[in-house]
């Protein structure tokens, strides 16, 4: 585990200089820091986190809805296109990125950067499950479209109740045998505990000479007269304020990134806003229930629901313990972080993003209506939704928990109109001296690919020199595995062996 908040007594000295400052100690910052420390061991790096340890906001397993997003079972990544056919393009892109993640984790396990794979990743079947004629027909078409792609060639599909019961018995027990159901399955899925992964990376950074400070809140980032970035930091335990400066700053502060980037005054953040969505989950730690379900099962989102609200019944491995989670149940809060302030949303409104935000509100009344219905829904009505997946579920085995905040990106499209974007957005200054990440899903699962994009944008002069090392870290670096089945097979076998993911 990373250093406790007791280290917060040692604030950075006034005017302390770093090559790189990382704001936030979530999966994004720790991934980037671990990459840079391997590429440039002599660079000085400081990492500041306002909470008392790493990975406590969106990276925490109980705050992170999608652990191991590989687009294997998430139906929102395979929509029907304008031609009426199921498109696999988005699923291919996300799966390629998650395969990059597994290669990097495999490299870090071999290097000793990460510990035993079972402490952060476990093999887990991924299943898509629907009911009703229209949905079953869609899932059949999706199966055929995915089967044709090398990335997804091991998909299997059935509408047989008995076969689905073998895959995931809780889905079938108590269900009307005449109801038409359909399921597609991959045995190569995973469950990832990003809290554990993040904390292991933070511990590695700490032991590698990175100055890791918990309980230190970054209050502003401003360009100094010398061209470097001045990062003002407050020690939350003592109230002491200090300033560190850096050649490069990464704002990996989750929902807190928008305000810091706005305060930095870079042109590239103009027009961006944030729409916060909170969530709740039902969780079962009852072994009699949890031990009978071994899969991540995704269904279809309700009409008007955002993609992040796709219902799913998941096995989760958290700190070595097997549990179940069902949800999410969407809610609304003006906070941008679970530990944030109710003033986060109003304080994010600026003259340059007011019109795009108003346009988003006008064009997404169905989303607002959906959120109002979700917030006002009774506990019994919420529990009834679990019965769609698990007909025999009993309320005594489940508890409602509050998940992390998700801040969806609001921005101008190519025509200058405000739109709501469900995804992640990497923002970087033109000179590459500062960058930050906005948005949510698929987020953590694609962190390595996002950080590789950041390296290309912000450290272009070093990329040719770094490339051999990057290809050592990720053998498929720069190549599309779906277009190279032989390399795909080689990479899949190697990562499965190293990460102990053999079915």
Automatic annotation (TrEMBL):
Keyword list, A-Z: FAD, Flavoprotein, Oxidoreductase, Tricarboxylic acid cycle
Pathway the protein acts in: Carbohydrate metabolism; tricarboxylic acid cycle; oxaloacetate from (S)-malate (quinone route): step 1/1
Cofactor: FAD
EC top class named in words: oxidoreductase
The protein's Enzyme Commission number: 1.1.5.4
GO molecular function terms attached to this record: L-malate dehydrogenase (quinone) activity
Catalytic activity annotation: (S)-malate + a quinone = a quinol + oxaloacetate
Protein name per its UniProtKB record: Probable malate:quinone oxidoreductase
Gene: mqo
Highest taxon in the source lineage: Bacteria
InterPro entries documented for this protein: FAD/NAD-bd_sf (IPR036188), MQO (IPR006231)
Family: Belongs to the MQO family.
